[in-house]
Amino acid sequence: MTTCGCHNHTTCKTTAMKKAEAYCAAHNLRLTDTRKQVLAIIWQSHTALTAHNIMEALGNSQPPITYRALQFLQENGLIHHIASLNAYIGCPHIGEAHTGQMVICKHCLTVTEINTPLPQLLTDASRNGFTVEDTHIEILGTCKHCQSLA
Ligand SMILES: [Zn+2]
Ligand SMILES: [Zn+2]
Ligand SMILES: [Zn+2]
Question: Do residues 37 and 85 both lie within one domain?
Fold first, then answer.
């Protein structure tokens, strides 16, 4: 099983789903049944899920539907794509401007999002007039729980 930084994941999931619904309602975004189902599957835990995992959970034999739902959720900031795992994780900071650095356990695939300010890094990246539009920082390692199993 995975370790989750939250005290009560049921509350954590309910809060995330409510936030997503409120955000979509406020921004005229259609959180269709499929999109909501995909989001709920992703929020099942703090473990990153691949599109394949999600399709299996959906029992969905139509990949385009799943991919379109994932695209919608990602474009609207409800989930994040973890490039190093080619997997997805729910965002607990929907609608807030944040840098979202991902701390990833390579053993259990638990992902924790941290939002540490990156002033120096961004300043350095902006030298020579470069405009930073987005940052994707993924930090890989071993979580406390997996260390205790070693
Ligand atoms: Zn949780
Ligand atoms: Zn986020
Ligand atoms: Zn772990």
Answer: yes
